Amino acid sequence: MVIGLFALQTSFAQTLTETYPKKRSIVVEEFTGVNCGYCPEGHDIVNSLQEIYGDELNIINVHSTGFADPGPGQPDFRTEYGPAFVTEFGVTGAPAGNVNRLLYDFVAEGTIAMGRGAWSNAVEVSSQMDAPANIGVESSFDEATRELTVNVEVFYTAEMAEANNYIQLAFIENGIIGPQEDYGAGIMHTDYEHNAVLRT
Description:
Elements lengths: L1 H10 L14 E7 L6 H15 L3 E7 L18 H8 L6 E4 L14 E2 L3 H9 L5 E10 L4 E10 L15 E2 L2 E7 L4 E8 L2 E2 L2
Parallel strand pairs: 1-2
Antiparallel strand pairs: 1-3, 3-4, 5-6, 7-10, 8-9
């Protein structure tokens, strides 16, 4: 009887995440495009923020809006999800971004999407917020079958207002060399390194 109880307890033990309250991790979704001349400045801003916050800050570059429409010979980094995100978050240009998909009272636009000048402040505010849930993730990839298995574990540290909660997994790709308009440098790069590109 004791052995059965022990087995039951261990099968439900938290193994991927902590059970104590923590601060939020940060996700910056940047709306960008290869023909957006101010976007390299946006990339520099989020990369600088990642140097400060380390693994607690995650970047997803969503190639959407007209600036992401590929010209002749340009790669197409757009996804089927980009247009819906643009609409949902109120994106009106690029670079634009959101931080943890939250609305901040200091953002003049009154939308979840904000200009690059507000990102640092939003990241700082978000990093001080308590997380209502801790999420742990582990994955494995079978090269032979090309099957990815992802296990997600959630531990709630506070009451959640909504009855339903959802998890989104984003596949991003780093190290893609290609074109990028750059007004700061006054050129169209042909060998720009695109990182954190949303794929699906």
